[in-house]
Amino acid sequence: MTLLVSLGPASPVAGEIEEVVGLAVPEEDMGASNTKTLSVPSMPGTRTPTYIMVPFCRTFQQAQRYCACRYRGRLASIHSASINSFLLRMVHRLSNAALVWIGAVSQPAFPRPSCHWTDRSRWDYSQWVPGHPLPGHRFCTSLCSNNGRWMSVNCRRRLPFICEI
Q1: Are the C-beta atoms of residues 65 and 74 closer than 8 Å to each other?
Q2: Domains of the chain, start order
Q3: Collapsing DSSP states into helix, strand and coil, what is residue 162?
Q4: 132 vs 19: CA distance, rounded Å
Q5: What does each of the 165 residues of the chain score in pLDDT, given as a tens digit?
Q6: I want to staple 53 with a disulfide (CB 3.0 to 4.6 A). Which of 33, 34, 76, 94 is the partner?
Q7: Residue 84 near residue 138 (C-beta atoms within 8 A)
């Protein structure tokens, strides 16, 4: 079964499941297309992103390309505890994965690794597992579905991911 939940026209790759979940988008009955949206309140005057949970596994770079090519988006950047909690609930609802890619990267630096979002947005929030980000190498970042914290992971590992558009 292919389930696509979307705010716009798109069709999933055959045999893969996608679900598009938007912030502050009212639920609507889209007829027989099996579509759903998940709503949470947004702050007035702020941009309201849409997050897409992609449950099939890709490397970090492949996930980035997929988000860009498929949705003209990027891996999700997280700038608040409320967005982190929202994405954690979305992962629980749509996937059984222990880890999912988000759009953060850490670079080796002394005395602590430097971190940045791949969309070049401001680094103003983090939720690292104690001991992370790991030092010594470039690492990509995953959201842990058991506790909502972030872990440094080898960028070649294949994980599900969250796109932001």
Answers
A1: no
A2: 19-164 (3.10.100.10)
A3: strand
A4: 30
A5: 222 333 333 334 444 444 454 443 323 322 222 223 343 445 566 668 899 999 999 999 999 999 999 999 999 999 999 999 999 999 999 989 999 999 999 999 887 899 999 999 999 999 999 999 998 899 999 999 999 999 999 999 999 999 999
A6: 94
A7: no
Nearest 5°: phi and psi at 105?
Answer: -135, 140
Interstrand relation of 159-164 and 50-58 (parallel, antiparallel or unpaired): antiparallel
Contact of 73 with 163, CB cutoff 8 Å: yes
> DSSP class of residue 12?
P
Rg (CA), the chain: 16
User: How far, in Å, CA of 22 to CA of 123, rounded?
Assistant: 22
Q: Residue 75: what residue type?
A: L
Instruction: Please report, as a single letter, which amino acid is at residue 68.
Output: A
Strand pairing category for 50-58 and 19-22 = antiparallel
What does the block give as tokens for 150?
């972030």
The span from the CA of 162 to the CA of 165, in Å, is 10
How many other C-beta atoms can be found within 10 angstroms of the C-beta atom of residue 3?
13
Q: Point out which residues pair with 102 in neighbouring strands.
A: 141
